[in-house]
Write a structure and sequence with these properties.
The chain is mostly helical and 233 residues long. Helices cover 65% and strands 0% of the residues. It starts with 10 loop residues before the first helix and ends in a 37-residue tail after the last helix.
Length: 233
């Protein structure tokens, strides 16, 4: 199947040239910025988004805190599982990188000698984004948006075909959703046990949050209505 991308005229290759052609017209500094964003920046943004969601969940501290944290733990685990599943897929398809078979591409990052299908970056970010959506819809939508931007960056950088990215999105989504019931069944008892721990319970609920899910009132502070739980699992 190594000849999957060798056809000189197909929509996949045409879209590759269209998107990567934007890099030729962009300023040098912009391309360097896209290189960093596409290679490292958006992955870092995903990590920060997961931490932000965790901080929000534990601070709210309602009765769904333990299942929500379990879903958050599953998000990066799903990404890791998806990348492992991608290892035999890459070895089976053996699709060369776009710049190997097609001339005139503006490749923004070097050293890519492995196979192209499917994109690890697209797989990672979409698995985390969908895993976040299971825990919290608002954060999940932001995560899915970051994953879509990551996919665009990989094609812009000239290191993946659009179908590599689409395949990564599909793989990350499938792993995150199909294995979610099993993951939640295994992880939720663990997070509930952590929640009951006097030493580690702060990982699930903020210390100022009572067992009834209400934040302890600070003298002089205005009481606020608790937010509705947003567990999407």
């Amino acid at each position: 199947m190594a000849g999957l991308a060798e056809s000189g005229s197909n929509p996949d290759v045409d879209l590759l040239y269209d998107i990567n052609g934007l890099a030729k017209d962009a300023p040098h500094w912009f391309d360097r910025g896209m290189e960093f964003v596409g290679e490292y920046g958006l992955l870092l943004a995903m990590v920060l988004l997961v931490l932000w969601c965790w901080w929000t969940v534990r601070r709210r501290g309602d009765e769904n805190a333990a299942p929500s944290v379990a879903a958050l733990v599953w998000a990066p685990l799903a990404a890791g599982v998806a990348v492992l599943v991608n290892v035999p897929i890459r070895g089976f398809v053996e699709r060369p990188r776009p710049f190997v078979d097609h001339q005139g591409l503006d490749v923004l990052v070097g050293g890519k000698t492995d196979f192209s299908f499917v994109s690890d970056h697209a797989t990672l970010t979409m698995a985390i984004g969908v895993g976040l959506f299971v825990a919290n819809r608002r954060f999940g939508l932001v995560g899915i948006g970051i994953a879509l931007l990551e996919g665009f960056c990989r094609v812009y950088m000239g290191v993946h075909y659009p179908t590599d990215v689409i395949g990564g999105f599909a793989l990350g989504t499938a792993v995150a959703l199909l294995l979610s019931p099993l993951a939640m069944a295994l992880l939720t008892p663990v997070t509930k046990a952590v929640e009951r721990s006097p030493r580690a319970g702060w990982l699930i609920r903020a210390r100022s949050v009572g067992r009834a899910g209400q934040e302890a009132l600070i003298p002089g502070a205005r009481a606020e209505r608790p937010e509705e739980p947003d567990l999407a699992a």
